[in-house]
Design goal:
By secondary structure, this protein is mainly α. The chain has helices spanning 5-27, 53-69, 74-90, 115-132, 135-151, 173-184, 191-208, 238-254, 258-275, 304-321, 324-340, 373-388, and strands at 39-40, 46-48, 51-52, 101-102, 108-110, 169-171, 210-211, 216-217, 220-222, 235-236, 287-288, 302-303, 352-353. Strands 3-4-5 form a three-stranded antiparallel sheet. Strands 1-2 form a two-stranded antiparallel ribbon. A hairpin with a 5-residue loop joins strand 1 and strand 2. Helix 1 runs antiparallel to helix 12 and helix 4 (115-132) packs parallel to helix 6 (173-184).
Length: 391
């Protein structure tokens, strides 16, 4: 693959606007009850009508983001509003905590045990407020964001299964999502507060969770940032580590910090070297840092979001640094992702492949896969290659 950035930009643009978005617009919108269907088979048929808060909020964010950053299309804003209004009415308990799952008509199914429901609510309503100009949406966003700040040191609260005081671990997922979320909220936050939060999250991610000896990003460490020799303490989640690094790159670019950008690129390249399946290609889902058997039985599956986040990180890293290693890895990941996950017959991307790269689950959406990683990555890669081509 030669460096034809204009052709790559066109490829991502067409996939987003002519394939992926039309799939979700046609099959996922629940105009009767509000919100979205996410459990869609290969052809877009609905196989479950439950509504999962992460995916509901993420779809609000996608269509609000495209409305504000790409084109002010009324159909996109209407789709975002369909989810935002449903969630504002049904998504929270009386104390303002966001549930994890609802029935089709909005009855709560799963308690608000998960901080990421609040994270994605803050993201969604911040962007929807920007798109719609609705003051009530700003209030929802800020309230959800305060929930995140309040819960970040004890994310599951009373719903945690961990016994107190024995092995206190903290998760990379919390500071990495807080970094991205705070960037999303920047237009609603005082500049001093934003800078303080971003500095703290970057410091925590790049100090506590990064093993400088191996150049790998650990999924969980002790509260003081030290490594813990157990299943959870040895866990490497390649997709999370790489996604966190492009968040860090964006923050470092905002604050003109080239050293941190280079460090983040180094980590991406190290994770790719560690996680690439030398026999079948693609990136493993979970790995043990010391090569022991992982506890996750799905460890060797190849997942859509892991590869898409890697494409984003490599495209961004290449634009910011020009490093040849980024481009070499980009070509390798591009070839694998576009030849294995795309579905030319029915549209959108498959989510779950077995280790050999064969389709494992014949679906386009479910409890965890919705209208988020694919369209976001397509939009971001389109943006990066358009910039690289001088457009």
């Amino acid at each position: 693959m030669e460096q034809d950035f204009r052709a790559l930009a066109t490829q991502y643009k067409q996939a987003l606007l002519e394939d992926v978005l039309p799939f979700w617009q046609k099959h996922s919108i629940d105009w009767e009850q509000g919100g979205y269907f996410t459990c869609l088979d290969r052809a877009g048929n609905i196989f479950d009508t439950d509504k999962f808060i992460w995916l509901q909020n993420r779809q609000v964010w996608i269509f609000s983001m495209l409305y504000t950053q790409l084109e002010r299309r009324e159909d996109w804003l209407k789709i975002a509003a369909n989810g935002a209004n449903f969630l504002a009415q049904h998504g929270r308990d009386v104390e303002g905590n966001w549930y994890f799952a609802l029935t089709r008509d909005g009855q709560p199914l799963v308690q608000p045990y998960n901080i990421f429901s609040d994270c994605f609510a803050a993201m969604a309503f911040s962007k929807y407020a920007l798109a719609s100009g609705e003051d009530w949406a700003k209030e929802v966003a800020l309230q959800a964001y305060q929930n995140v700040l309040r819960r970040k040191d004890n994310p599951k609260g009373k719903y945690t299964k961990a016994y107190p005081g024995t092995r206190a671990l903290k998760s990379l997922a919390v500071p990495m999502i807080l970094a991205n979320l705070s960037l999303e909220m920047n237009w609603l936050l005082p500049g001093e507060q934003l800078e303080q939060i971003l500095d703290a999250t970057v410091q925590e991610v790049m100090t506590d969770f990064l093993d400088p000896a191996r150049g790998l990003m650990y999924e969980a460490v002790a509260s003081d940032g030290s490594l813990v020799d157990c299943f959870d303490g040895r866990l490497i989640n390649p997709g999370h580590g790489i996604e966190a690094m492009w968040f860090i790159m964006e923050i470092a670019d905002l604050y003109q910090d080239p050293a941190t950008i280079q460090q983040a690129v180094d980590v991406v390249l190290n994770i790719l070297d560690f996680a690439w399946d030398q026999e079948y290609g693609g990136l493993f889902y979970f790995m043990d840092a010391d090569g022991h058997p992982p506890q996750q039985l799905e460890w060797d599956q190849k997942l859509w979001w892991v590869h898409l986040e890697s494409l984003v990180a490599l495209a961004l890293g290449y634009r910011l640094t020009g490093r040849q290693a980024c481009w070499d890895w980009y070509q390798k990941l591009h070839e694998y992702a576009w030849s294995h996950f795309t579905d030319p017959d029915y549209g959108e991307w498959f989510g779950y492949l077995n280790r050999r790269g064969e389709v494992l689950l014949n679906l386009k959406g479910g409890k965890w896969k919705g209208c988020f990683h694919v369209p976001r990555a397509l939009f971001l890669c389109w943006r990066e290659f358009a910039a690289l081509s001088g457009e």
